[in-house]
Amino acid sequence: MANRFDLMTITGLLAGAAVVLIAILTSSGLGLFISVPSVLITVCGSFFSVVIQYDFSHVKGVLVVARKAFTAKPPRPEEIISTFSELAKKARKEGLLALEEDAELVDDALFTKGLQLMVDAIDPDTIRDIIEIEIQSMVERHEQGQSIFRTWAALAPAFGMIGTLVGLIQMLARLDDPSALGPGMSVALLTTFYGALLANLVLNPIAGKLALRSDEELLVKTIILEGVIAIQSGLNPRILEEKLRAYIPDDNDLSAGEGAEVAFDETAL
Description:
The chain has 269 residues and is an all-alpha fold. The chain contains ten helices and no strands. Helix 2 packs antiparallel against helix 7, helix 5 packs parallel to helix 8 and helix 5 packs antiparallel against helix 9. The protein is elongated and about 90 Å long.
């Protein structure tokens, strides 16, 4: 199944860029904020600093990692739970071997592997060990991608300051020409502007969205793990569904807590 784009991420990025652009155009021309040397120092300089800190094999996949921030969420936990409930009913009626044809029912490699291990009558403890190792590897990969973007976000403003210092040095070297001081200072400050914009509008938000996607995917993988083990153990379909639903945060609990707090305050008054 092809990935769908996450409109919230794209809209937020484009809207943020548009707000900055409109603010620039209302007070000056866009050309005043364009500086190729500043881009080279801030963007390229900070990126190559990231390359120094990480293995190239990790950095070259940075665009692949970033794509997760712009694609739609993984399957909804409710859908996975409903699928496992139906599979549990089928397994009780027809046996575990009947589930082999359902291995591709969910577009998830771990789901397929889990069902295949279950059909192959692998010991539940062994299945848990295998799937937990896969989940842990997934979490580590996700954390690596987030770390790259957070590191880049920390370095971009620093390289912006480096560019500013370079511009100030060049400006001070031409103190005998007062007319060059204003434009020189403008160019020097552009690198700081680029670094702050890159870090706060692009890199940090992408790292945050990747963390959110990782948490969502971890929840789905955990439900898959417990669902496979539950079916392997012959758990009642209704109990299985209740057990898996316990992994989903209940917004009603939060609402009830807020309501109780309000009621308590009113009683106190």
